[in-house]
Amino acid sequence: MARKNRDADWLDQEAAAQESQPAEPCWLCGRPLGKTVDRFHPIPKSRGGRDTVPVHPICRETIDANFSASELVRHAQMGIPLTDNETVARFVKWIANKPADFHSATKGGR
Fold it and tell me: What does the domain layout of the chain look like in residue ranges?
């Protein structure tokens, strides 16, 4: 006797629930996230950070290109947003109207 695939209905319901949920915003730019999502440590793991936040891959590259681990810790401890950096602020303004999965080469920083 063949077994029926009892999990098929559950999987369909799970997929429908994920599609109906609003997209989570990116931690840096605030745009809805696309298919590819990076998990970023605002306080680097090397400095004791455990929490992660969702970001676009291009936003992650911009953060990595403009901040060292010690600068990220300093921003977190003092409560200074990363967008206070002029380069990052220009990036966030530029990317604001791009689609969620937009990607482009990131200029090296520092």
Answer: 25-95
